[in-house]
């Protein structure tokens, strides 16, 4: 039997990386042929590469997982779809009876292993069966679920000297990545340290309230006093005595302000 191929589609880089590594451990023979960061890229890869399985995040930019799955239904080659979701088990307990599976965020290795076993059994007993009936049923169930309310950070544990402090996110002016740490600067001019990488931290912050203005800097939008440019066209954000550079790639954030 030829190897089973799969595509991973999720807009969170850390989750894509974690799922890829976890699949390599629980299912070494599975061939990951593409890793996609949005729904449009996922659909293009599915059409081109015709994988056997797609691990598909429900919430993605460009096209969400629901839209991608609906497009898959129209194709002659229809892969099995495993939805990756932040919905809790109570909300999606109806999926348990479905041949197409789901994975909850954060990923659990034993649950992933069970999912892979189910897929292997599906291919072993019904290698040519279309996924359409299951996919249609699952899409119908998904459409009836209530909207997800994102859960963002409200408190952060950070160190200063030998002490650990509990800081409200509302008190934060900006985060700045250093060599091994991320520094937190608060509105009372205090500085704290955390070990969480800036990329990972950014995923836990409300994007309406915090913007990444530089590869090493994330600021609280409400604390920005003004944005200015120097004679060379370099842009800076000023906030409570701090002057922070804005990378050229991020200057579009402030267009029209």
TrEMBL record:
CDD domains cross-referenced by the UniProt entry: REC_LytTR_AlgR-like
Residue(s) carrying 4-aspartylphosphate: 57
SUPFAM superfamilies documented for this protein: CheY-like
GO molecular function annotation: DNA binding; phosphorelay response regulator activity
The HTH LytTR-type domain, residue ranges: 156-257
Domain Response regulatory: 5-120
Keyword Secreted found: no
InterPro entries membership: CheY-like_superfamily, LytR-like, LytTR_DNA-bd_dom, Sig_transdc_resp-reg_receiver
Keywords: DNA-binding, Phosphoprotein, Transcription, Transcription regulation, Two-component regulatory system
Protein name in the entry: Response regulator transcription factor
The organism of origin for this protein: Vibrio marinisediminis
């Amino acid at each position: 039997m030829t190897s089973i191929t799969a595509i991973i589609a999720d807009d969170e880089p850390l989750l894509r990386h974690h799922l890829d590594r976890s699949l390599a451990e629980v299912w070494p023979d599975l061939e990951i042929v593409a890793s996609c960061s949005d729904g449009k890229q996922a659909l293009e890869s599915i059409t081109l590469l015709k994988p056997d399985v797609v691990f598909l995040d429900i919430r993605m930019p460009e096209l969400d997982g629901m839209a991608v799955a609906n497009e898959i239904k129209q194709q002659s080659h229809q892969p099995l779809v495993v939805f990756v979701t932040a919905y809790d088990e109570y909300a999606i307990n109806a999926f348990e009876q479905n041949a197409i599976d789901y994975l909850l965020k954060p990923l659990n290795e034993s649950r992933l292993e069970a999912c892979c076993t189910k897929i292997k059994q599906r291919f072993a007993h019904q290698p040519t069966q279309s996924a359409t009936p299951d996919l249609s049923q699952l899409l119908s169930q998904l459409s009836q679920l209530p909207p997800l309310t994102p859960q963002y950070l409200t408190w952060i544990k950070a160190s200063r000297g030998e002490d650990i402090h509990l800081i409200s996110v509302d008190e934060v002016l900006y985060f700045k990545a250093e060599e091994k740490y991320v520094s937190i600067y608060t509105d009372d001019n205090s500085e704290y340290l955390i070990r969480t990488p800036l990329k990972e931290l950014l995923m836990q912050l409300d994007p309406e309230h915090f913007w990444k203005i530089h590869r090493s800097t994330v600021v609280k939008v409400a604390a920005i006093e003004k944005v200015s440019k120097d004679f060379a066209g370099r842009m800076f954000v000023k906030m409570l005595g701090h002057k922070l550079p804005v990378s050229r790639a991020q200057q579009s954030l402030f267009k029209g302000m």
